[in-house]
Amino acid sequence: ARAAIGPRDLAGIRVVVTAGPTVEDLDPVRFLGNRSTGKMGFAIAERAASRGASVTLVSGPVSLATPRGVTRVDVRSALDMQAALREVMGADLEHADALIMTAAVADYRPAEQSATKRKRSAEPLRLELVPNPDLLAEVGAARKGARPVLVGFAVETADDAGIEAYARRKLAAKCVDMVVANHAKDSFGREDNRATIVTAGGAEALGVLSKHSLADRILDRVAERCR
Ligand code: CTP
Ligand code: CA
């Protein structure tokens, strides 16, 4: 059980957390999405707020209650999330001390969105998809110096060595401080998670933790870097 009263070691720190999936509309009734439920990001937002941080949670469509003391911004698509992050963090990222990207941002969106419902036909349907921007990499490239602290998440289907190798690649490609990597089967929809935190300094396998405990471990690392 979590203590009701704990350290307020994140007081004065502005944390932006993204959570959930993004969904990419095909027409007014259909979308492309993924299996993210938002639990990890909501757990981080809750723990960060309990520890005294000022928290903004940018969330895709999920069915979770907003944690106490957290400012929530709801978005739908990756492009919506990009716009929300710009608004919340400021053009020069000046309004955030840390960005924790747990969101499962859709890598592609339909090239065309139909304003009306697409009608069924007997013919095969080919969808053209275009790449979405990499929101975390954009912030990584725009950041000057050590702020905001940047944390990425990566869900993979590789073995432990492969997961770590992918995480290391993402750490470099996105210019971030930390990648929290895990296996799809250990993560989606669960209350716990088995994650590895990868930084330039090394990798730490954390074993199975509740999402709230994992949140605290990640926030400990963020707090260190914000000092
Ligand atoms: N991410 C992002 N924008 C995207 C895709 C991913 O900001 N368009 C962020 C995610 O929120 C996450 C991190 O990048 O924090 C890693 O996401 P992941 O999907 O694992 O990485 P990708 O670079 O999309 O690689 P993959 O081909 O494995 O999907
Ligand atoms: Ca991806």
UniProtKB/TrEMBL annotation:
Originating gene: coaBC
Domain DNA/pantothenate metabolism flavoprotein C-terminal: from-to ranges: 10-224
Keywords: Decarboxylase, Flavoprotein, FMN, Ligase, Lyase, Magnesium, Metal-binding, Multifunctional enzyme
EC annotation from Swiss-Prot or TrEMBL: 4.1.1.36, 6.3.2.5
Taxonomic lineage: Bacteria, Pseudomonadati, Myxococcota, Polyangia, Polyangiales
Cofactor entry: FMN; Mg(2+)
UniProt keyword annotation of Transmembrane present: no
GO annotation terms (biological process): coenzyme A biosynthetic process; pantothenate catabolic process
Gene Ontology CC terms: phosphopantothenoylcysteine decarboxylase complex
Metal-binding found in the keyword field: yes
Biological function: Catalyzes two sequential steps in the biosynthesis of coenzyme A. In the first step cysteine is conjugated to 4'-phosphopantothenate to form 4-phosphopantothenoylcysteine. In the second step the latter compound is decarboxylated to form 4'-phosphopantotheine.
Descriptive protein name: Coenzyme A biosynthesis bifunctional protein CoaBC
Catalysis performed (reactions): N-[(R)-4-phosphopantothenoyl]-L-cysteine + H(+) = (R)-4'-phosphopantetheine + CO2; (R)-4'-phosphopantothenate + L-cysteine + CTP = N-[(R)-4-phosphopantothenoyl]-L-cysteine + CMP + diphosphate + H(+)
GO molecular function: FMN binding; metal ion binding; phosphopantothenate--cysteine ligase activity; phosphopantothenoylcysteine decarboxylase activity
Pathway note: Cofactor biosynthesis; coenzyme A biosynthesis; CoA from (R)-pantothenate: step 2/5; Cofactor biosynthesis; coenzyme A biosynthesis; CoA from (R)-pantothenate: step 3/5
Binding locations of CTP: 107, 117, 133-136, 153, 170, 174
Cofactor binding: number and manner: Binds 1 FMN per subunit.
Region (Phosphopantothenate--cysteine ligase), start-end ranges: 15-227
Family of the protein in this entry: In the C-terminal section; belongs to the PPC synthetase family.
Coiled coil, from the record: none
